Amino acid sequence: MNKQLQILFLLLFCAATAHATKLKGHVYDKQTGEAIVGATVVLDNPRRTTNTGLDGTFEFKDVKAGTAKISVSYITYRTIEKTIVILKEDNDHLKFYMESDSKNLDDISIKSNAVSSTDQGARHLEKNAAQLMNIVSGRAIEISPDLTVANVMQRISGVSIERNSNGDGQYAILRGMDKRYNYTLVNGVKIPSPDNKYRYVPLDLFPSDLLDRLEVYKTLTPNLEGDAIGGAINMVMKNAPGLLQVNANVSTGYSQLFFDRKFTSYNASGINYKSPYEINGKSYNATQNDFTKGTLDYQYKNPAPHLIGSLSVSKRFLDNRLGVVLAGSYQNTYRGSNSTFYNNSVVGTDAYATITSKSYREYSEQQQRTGLHGKIDYVFNKDHQISLYNVYVNLKNQQVRDAVTTTYNKDYDPVAGNAQLVFDTRSRLTEQQVYNSTLHGDHKFFDDKFKVQWSAVYSSAKNDVPENTSISLNGLEQNFQRKRTSLVNTNPVTRRWERNTDEDLAGYLDLTYHVLSGIHKLDIMAGGLYRDKQRSSFFNNYNLAQGADHANDVYGVNFQNYTDLNLVVSNPTGAVANSLTYDATEKTTAGYGMFKYTSAKLEVIGGARVEHTNQGYNLLFPAGESFPKGNQIYTDVLPSLTAKYFLTEKAQLHASYYKALNRPGFYEIVPGKVVNEEFQERGNPNLQRALADNFDLRYELFPGASEQLLVGAFYKRIKNPIEYTFQADAVRGQDIYYSPGNFGTANNYGAEVDYIKYFSKIGLKANYTYTHSRINTTKTTRVINSTTGDTEPANVNQERPLYGQSAHIANLSLLFKDTKKGWDVQVAGAYTGPRINTVSQFLNNDLWQEGFVQMDASAEKRFKGGISVFVKANNILNTPTKLFIKGTNPANNDIGEDLVKNGNTLIRSDYYGQNYLVGFRYKFN
């Protein structure tokens, strides 16, 4: 019996010692204290492997008590190997601090971009930045649903985007300030815009996979250019690591829109990039044979699938002195939209607009986006480095817009389906490109006390719209059957050439002197820039029509295809003599002085920037304008002060004041008029720059791995804000122009919350911004004269928000990351509240965009050998863009359309369809 008891106790003891327990721990960066996501943890008890989660934690279950070996490894970090004692109870106290495995060259640390492109690196940069900043890391961009920089921008707090005609993001609005109030940088250098009218850069030009990270500056310091009332966007390109890195991906997909209808295209290969005027001289009389027939030869078919790919290769040579990066991206996509537009006008004493016609438009667009990036850097020694980088992006957009317009008049019967129609088809090829080349040097003298940084920059931007062709035909609707009949008018076919180029030569110089070191640090900085910008703009237009004996030819009877038409050029020498043919220059000289003081609890950066601007234009073919030549010369002093108070190692208060300006664009001060398809535009040579005082306060908490809580408030007081409105001509009151103007003083204030939190494999990214702005605009209304009984115009002031500003913007992204099994999943939603789309000259007739939610998703599965498969889905809810006027006119009910909802009248709706991609990625490093 005693022997049996002894055996029983022995078995119980063995069972107790063999009892399974848990082993938990955290992995941190030793320098920053931030958790490392995706580190590989190997336990030899027996051998098992796991990876750290989104919060840097790892866990092994059913671990035997006793001694065991554990190792932790991660790219660019030194591997940690330890022998540990595993206790019987759960072990959740293990902490590992990893050190960077940097390559050293004469005490210069050359680090891989793998760290700076991670979420942890992004949070570290945000925490230490002088200005208030938000950053999207390269890895976050890679696994997101977004293919262009514009779409990435919508994930950032306080940022909303304007869509282009196929539903993709194009321009960014920062904190309710229209796109005109921000500028765009590549590696810290401002780039020109290819836009034919304005300064702002279309961000859909840039494929997102070229970026190491995307930075958004919400405040400025004196060493940054001062024309950013809203903020600045900095695209940091990929860098050269110590080891060979190869990243490649290829994907394909389709737009849901073309499951339901055909894609319209034409042959653009024969397009003439120069007009007959340019090819043959100003006295040449053009004929139909001088124009391409392919732009009128439309094909209706199913488009090919998307083709998207990118490749980047980077390595260091010569004992790590020489670094080389080559990266390229190509995207060929087929997109479009279905649009319904209701034309309206204010008649008599109507308080609200009356719908006069309806246009249904189908857009079909083939977009070919090419991006190239190359960088070479050479390290002479620990004190001297030099680099040369080049960036080239090109977006070619081949678009067909097919439209039919129904005019509502007294004979229109929506029940019988009879109406007079006009069919308009436009074929347009737009090519935009930006090139930037920067030679940069970093130098240190006197034991690092004195630093010199310089850059020599050449940049160019081009926008080319060659042989833009449109044709109009009369039509008839009978029993809802639409037929195209004769040509609309005496000039039913137009051929248009538009082109503009910007060329910048710029030099930057920044000097830094270390005055104090130790607990109290003081740096004195000074520098400046000089930029010479040259712009040229060209416009030419030809009108073509049938001869008198064929004026009433019928489509399908007298001619079967538009290419069969025999046309006569009614203005054979062209129409190059217009206000869009001009030269312009801008010379900017700037200098700044600033200091940076740092102690254990405080960091203060202050100083002032002075910018001198000389901006002018010269109309090459003046046509009676009062100011065929003109220029604006002004100097601005822009002070700023930024302070950070360190509450703890992870929490701080960040406050800022800076003064900024917004210059008019060249096109905006050219005084001539331009006739567009739907309205006339005219510049304003008296347009003044806008100036703004900007205040910010933000509480910043960085509690752990890639986590943050940012709570802030901002206030902007803008003098002479620039906005576009419809205005009556001062001399000929019946002419209405869409023109820029200054509108007194505007106030813009708001609050932001930005929250990122991870729970092992689950992540949450959320932000919300409230913005409130007010500006007064003079509006026209009509009143009845009590004496005569006639209606007459009257002007009143109406208060409204700034153009493009939404009161509410929010983002919510849910993430799942399983580093052991190689999964990354993201579902992202972005909400943009109602905002003004177009400012009207008439009271209560501003055009508003309805608030909307856009939902996107992506998933990636990684396999061994650096291979991964991914899917992306955009606009899952098929969210439309809808425009409306507040209020309604009872007369609009007569057209038989359901346009009134919640007291608003629908004016336009655009549907884009869902878009899907599937592809694979390869990484070697």
From TrEMBL:
InterPro entries in alphabetical order: Beta-barrel_TonB_sf, CarboxyPept-like_regulatory, OMP_b-brl_3, Plug_dom, Plug_dom_sf, TonB-dep_rcpt-like
TonB-dependent receptor plug domain location: 128-232
Leader sequence residues: 1-20
Gene3D superfamilies associated with the record: Carboxypeptidase-like, regulatory domain, TonB-dependent receptor, beta-barrel domain, TonB-dependent receptor, plug domain
Sorted UniProt keywords: Cell outer membrane, Membrane, Receptor, Signal, Transmembrane, Transmembrane beta strand, Transport
The keyword Signal belongs to this UniProt entry's keyword annotation: yes
Residues annotated as domain Outer membrane protein beta-barrel: 561-882
Membrane topology: Multi-pass membrane protein
Compartments, as annotated in UniProt: Cell outer membrane
UniProt KW Signal keyword: yes
Stored PANTHER family: PLUG DOMAIN-CONTAINING PROTEIN, TONB-DEPENDENT RECEPTOR-LIKE BETA-BARREL DOMAIN-CONTAINING PROTEIN
Similarity remark: Belongs to the TonB-dependent receptor family.
Protein name: TonB-dependent receptor domain-containing protein
